[in-house]
Amino acid sequence: MTEEKELSYKEAIEKAGSAITRFPVIKIQDVPLMSHIAYNWDSIWAFRPDPSDLLIATYPKAGTTWTQEIVDLLLHNGDADACKRAPTPVRSPFLEICSPPPIPSGLDLLKKMDPPRLIKTHLPFKLVPPAFWENKCKAIYVARNAKDNLVSYYYFDLMNKTQPEPGPFAGYIHKFMTGELSWGSWYDHVKGYWMEREKKNILYLFYEDMKENPRREVERIMRYLDLSLSDEVISQIVELTSFKNMKDNPMANYSCIPSPVFDQSISPFMRKGEVGDWKNHFSPEQTKIFDEDYEKQMKDVNIPFRSLI
């Protein structure tokens, strides 16, 4: 085993050092992706999961880490210690992510794991490797209302030094509306998985439902995974995956990512986790413009989002 492969995830990121930068985006099928992802696209597209693998898909900052933690705990019968065996990106590799060596790519991490594997992606439906559907893999999609998702993504882009510079908030709203951010259009993203959810057996969840009644949604995920856990274990999972407990959990709060990459002094990775925080950021004029555009972009679907107004 080489020295680079022996490095811990955090050590590998630290060793990459000056190679970490705000990477430009390159479009794949009209979807902006960070350049390292685009350069490795053929390998990502060719990925063949095992039929037992589970995909967790979201637009960035829509409850991804929360869902990963819930599923990992469900798969380990609520064993908190088992779910502290490694940081989230090691336990549940990020399929398409690629960074400068010696940081392992998502594909590198997956190669070292035996199925069933828990796999994360932010790819829109049309860019998910087709073998997931050919092999009838289960997939969980989490959608978050547009304005809260936008605000959370903005703060993430401020602190994530690998994403393009977010610029001022007013300009960021425009980029969100026009799909110019990494991983593309929120509108295309939530609609793509919604339209395919029944044909592809995708469990489509809403962030707001998870906040309103986490136990109900944990039980929905449990049933989807064909698991049967005791009420006591379910209660324990709900408690372990509360926002406060996850924010304090070093295996889930991304403190494994050094500050030159994720500068959590600018904004914590787990910032607020609230519904309706957008009201503290949008001006009345921005709200009017956004709402009018939202109606146009979502007129062809009836996805039951809440907390837009």
From TrEMBL:
Residues 51-301 form the Sulfotransferase domain. Its EC number is 2.8.2.-. GO terms for biological process: catecholamine metabolic process; xenobiotic metabolic process. InterPro entries: P-loop_NTPase, Sulfotransferase_dom. Gene3D superfamilies: P-loop containing nucleotide triphosphate hydrolases. Keywords: Catecholamine metabolism, Cytoplasm, Transferase. Belongs to the sulfotransferase 1 family. This is Sulfotransferase. It comes from Nothobranchius furzeri (Turquoise killifish).
